[in-house]
Each structure stands twice: as structure tokens, then as C-alpha cells.
Amino acid sequence: MKVVRNGNFDKKVQVRSNDEIGYTGDVINEMNEGLKEREFILEAFGKYVTQEVRDEILSGRIPLDGEMKDVTILFADLRNFTPMTESSDPKLVVKIMNSYFEKMSDVIHQEGGLVLQFLGDEIYAVFGAPIARGDHPERAYRAATAMNKRLMELNEMFVERGWPLLRHGIGIHTGEAVAANIGSPDRLSYLLVGDTVNLASRLQGLTKDVGEDIIISKSTRSRLQQDIPLKKLAAARVKGKNEPVEIFAAA
Fold first, then answer.
1. How many CA atoms lie within 13 A of 51 on its CB side?
2. Do residue 38 and residue 145 come from a single domain?
3. pTM greater than 0.70 (yes/no)
């Protein structure tokens, strides 16, 4: 029992009798297996979300049946990736994608963000949910700039290995979105839905048109420190919006 209490679940009680002592040993062994399985689930869950988010969800403190959240959404997408997949060895493509996702996810997690999905060669992440953070716009922007730096470092490694170089575009928007567990009864995903998510995705798509790596919306800009160097771009028309959207790029 002392060994189990210290977190070692590999030890088992040697049961040598059918009396109450033997029964107690059987129960301890069953409990040990349950704790071992629980620890495995916790570790596996931690690979998909940060430990802080994992603990909040498992504690039941986060409602998963739908709530309106003030968040910042970040989309990052690799440019010209489809032609590269057609001309490269599939195993190499997987190595490149995994290397990219690993580096970018690490940056997002460091800023308290949550990667919701990998959509092909795209990253969909949120800051400010499921755990509320008042400074989520700044966290998202810091993550975006750090992602650019990590990509430069990654490309340096790719040059040494003779691998194709990568470029990406990042779109960021701040607003309200519905957060909930969404899906079928046997497969659920924690996602955010609404216009805030759609616009962030549209801004990511605009990076190709305006030739910028990072584009943020006016609502995100208004909640950043004013001394952050940004340049205002021409207002852009995006699908789903009647009026042009004011956008900014990293200076």
C-alpha cells in the first residue's frame, strides 16, 4: 500500500490464502490495476491538451454542454503544401508535417493555448477556453510571432537534411464563440463554433493575398498593448461579411 501511495502501480500483492487476508490482497491488486489504467488515461489525455486544461476538464469544473466564451482563435496553414505532397515521398511528408506540428503546438501550449484540431496541414487553436484568460489576445499574438521564429529554425534544420522548406500563414481574431463538446455519442471533440471562428479562418486565407505571414483583426488589435509594432492594411472583403474587415499585420 505504501508503494501504491507513492505512485508505483507495478507491484502486486502475492495472494497465498483464501481467507480475509487473501481477499484483501485481491482487492488491492484490482485497485492497483484501476489506478494504473487511470494514470495511463491521464497521460494520454495530456498529449492532446495541456495538463492544466486536462485537470480542469476531468475535475468537472468546465461545462461541456455549451457556453458562450470570449476567446481568440488562431488558424495556421502551410502554403503550397499540396504540390509538395504530390512530388515528395509520403513518409517524408509525414515527417515534415509532424516536425511542424510538434514545434507549433509547443509554442501554442507555452502561451496557454489549446490546439483543437489538426485539419490536414492546418492548425486550429484557441486562447481563452476552456480556461478563461483575460489576456488571451496577447497570448495568441505572442504565439503567432513565436511560431514564425520556430518555423525559421525548423527550415534551417530542413536545409541541413535536404528537405523542402515551409511557409505558413496565420490568422487571428477575437470575439465570442460557443464552446462545447460536439460530435456523435461515441466520438466527441471540444470545439468552438460561430462567426469568430469563421473570420479567423478567413483571415488566415487572406495572408496569401496580401503577402503577410500574420494577419489580425481590429478586435484583436484593440486588445493588444499599443506599443506592439503593427501596420494597418487595406480593409478586406471576406466571405460572410457585408462590410470590409479592418486588418493588421506584424510590422
1. 3
2. no
3. yes
